[in-house]
Design a protein that fits this description.
Strand order of the largest sheet: 13-12-10-11-8-7-14
Low-confidence stretches: none
Order of helices and strands: HEEEEEEEEEEEEEE
Shape: elongated
Structural class: mainly beta
Number of helices: 1
Helix content: 10-25%
Mean pLDDT: 79
Radius of gyration: 27 Å
Distance between the termini: 73 Å
Largest sheet: 7 strands, mixed
């Protein structure tokens, strides 16, 4: 340090400042590396998930889509279908639905309900779907052996297709999991 310059740091003080700043930068990098976006998708009845991480050094790092075991029984059991809006669980021939919402434009969300304690599957090719009258204030989850079709006034949104084989009920196809969103242009 120069004798007439009391504001300047000594070399040791500069080293200490650099060390402290380096620790703070490392802490910020570690915090950023913990930021994740978890995504899921359904394709042909199979559920896939992936995690995208934000890394200060490498930007966005996306992992590959991986098939998720949603049965809750396998070695890779990650989740249950009942974790999702409009998801389900099965006991015997009764499908218990998880509530979901119909989000129609700027209107308040409408919670879809199932009458009774669940939906009984008695026939092969049984559809479970959500029915909602456009602009209405209620929605219901129902079933039919006839594939649901949306009309000019009513949304009949297929959720799952169910089958019965040798008395055992199983999901044949998952069409939709999660809340149903109708864009505002259809409001």
């Amino acid at each position: 340090m120069r004798a007439n310059d009391s504001n300047n740091q000594t070399i040791d003080q500069m080293r200490e400042t650099v060390r402290v700043l380096s620790q703070k930068v490392n802490l910020i990098e570690r915090m950023l590396d913990r930021k994740e976006i978890k995504e899921a998708k359904v394709e042909s009845g199979d559920v896939y998930d992936r995690t995208t991480r934000l890394s200060m050094n490498n930007g966005m790092l996306s992992s590959e889509w991986r098939k998720t075991d949603v049965t809750g029984t396998g070695d890779n059991a990650d989740m249950s279908y009942s974790d999702w809006a409009f998801g389900f669980s099965v006991s015997g021939n009764v499908v218990t639905m998880t509530t979901g919402e119909v989000r129609h434009g700027s209107r308040p969300p409408v919670t879809a309900f199932v009458a009774g304690s669940g939906i009984t599957i008695n026939a092969d090719q049984t559809w479970i779907y959500c029915t909602y009258t456009f602009g209405g204030t209620s929605a219901q989850v129902v079933s039919s052996v006839i594939e649901p079709v949306t009309t000019a006034t009513t949304l009949n949104y297929p959720l799952h297709l169910w089958g019965v084989s040798n008395g055992v009920v199983s999901v044949k196809k998952i069409i939709h999991l999660g809340d149903i969103v109708i864009p505002g242009v259809f409001a």
